Task: structure prediction
Amino acid sequence: MQDENCIFCQIAQGKAPTSKVYENDYVIAFDDLHPLMPVHTLIIPKDHYRNIIDDVPAEVLGQVFAAVKEVARIKGVDESGFRILVNTGKDASPTVPHFHVHILGGGPMPRPNDQDWGPAASNAQ
Result:
């Protein structure tokens, strides 16, 4: 299942260029075009799912998260540490509506509760 208008589907099909980091039959991983950290790699399923709760088969979920270990090793953050992030729904502000996992690393990061989460946060002033 593909969405012809989805840039991640185009990447998965080899129709759009990317800096591929890892690939298997289910997923492809590539570096983010606008990295937030020295390591910022995305893992996407090759089939189109809008988000993690879009009836993604358990096998695909397993393949996506199994790829985290490989990508972390390839990118050299498996020992130093990294963060994985999945945005789901409009309040999470995903930029592409195709289920994907961000791997962020390569340096110290603030803890999530040390960040300014905006006026909707429970710790808003």
User: Anything to note?
Assistant: The first strand starts at residue 20 and ends at 23. The first helix runs from residue 7 to 12.
